[in-house]
Amino acid sequence: MQYNTQQKRMPLPEYGRSIQNMVDHALTIEDRAERQRCANTIINIMGNMFPHLRDVPDFKHKLWDHLAIMSDFRLDIDYPYEIIRKDNLRTKPENVPYPSTKIRYRHYGRTLEVLINKAIDFPEGDEKQSLIALICNHMKKDYMAWNKDTVDDRKIADDLSELSNGKLQMTDSIVRLMAERIDQNYRPKMNNQNNRNNRKRKY
Fold first, then answer.
1. Do the Cβ atoms of 105 and 120 come closer than 8 Å?
2. How far lies 149's CA from each of 84, 95, 145, 185, in Å?
3. How far apart, in whole angstroms, are the C-alpha atoms of residue 59 and residue 176?
4. Which of 39, 58, 88 is where one domain is finished?
5. Taking each helix axis from N to C terminus, what angle separates 172-185 and 126-147, rounded to the nearest 10 degrees?
6. Sign of CA dihedral 44, 45, 47, 52
7. Smallest Cα–Cα separation from 71: which of 103, 43, 92?
8. What is the span of the domain harbouring residue 139?
9. How many angstroms separate the CA atoms of 190 and 124, rounded?
10. Does 83 lie in the same domain as 54?
């Protein structure tokens, strides 16, 4: 089946050609009262197409806005709401300001720099040590994802010191914590075949 590209373009194709034809017909009705009744009927049909939205606030208002749009704002009826203005449809949104904060190492990202600054202010103790180990492991993962290569701990230690202005250091105890975290998170699990073999041994 080929779509008839010669047909009139629909402003809101989600309602389908039949609803658009109804709107076009309403524009030809000369009697105002009859035109109003036709518009009300169209709104009810449009609402029945989306029953899950009936309880959504302003749903009816949106339907009347859509009716006005589909009629190219030429349907002369008494709208129960103040409908959207035609010129508002072409209003461009304001430009979203792009963050101007400079990132020293893009492969680590801005979030990691924020995390490092938080760790600097963290009170000394085991929690801070664990946080630094987490940061270092994350740095290693980001570095390898960006460079597609292995990374030496000395490189991470140097970058951590630079990003923290020398306030955080990757000590031997931090390296041990890093290894412990990796061992906990990536410890291989017993596969299904081993489970089946263990069950067989019981019988």
1. no
2. 56, 39, 8, 21
3. 59
4. 88
5. 70
6. positive
7. 43
8. 108-185
9. 38
10. yes
Instruction: Tell me the residue ranges of DSSP E strands in 120-176.
Output: none
Cα–Cα–Cα angle for 143, 146, 148, rounded to 5 degrees: 90
Q: Do residues 157 and 123 lie in contact, with contact meaning Cβ atoms separated by under 8 Å? A: no
pTM over 0.85? The answer is no
* Residues 17 and 10 sit within 8 Å (Cβ to Cβ): yes
Distance CA(50)–CA(97), nearest Å, equals 36
Residue among 138, 158, 136 at smallest CA distance from 146: 138
pLDDT, tens only, 136-167? 999 988 888 877 667 888 989 999 999 999 99
Residues 6 or more apart whose CB falls under 8 angstroms from that of 4 comprise none
Confidence check: pLDDT of 55 > 80: no
Assess if residue 5 is contained within a domain: no
Nearest partner of 143 among 171, 172, 105, 110, judged by Cα: 105
Q: Indicate the DSSP class of residue 6.
A: T
81 and 113: one domain?
no
* Residue 190 exposure: Cα atoms within 13 Å on the Cβ side: 7
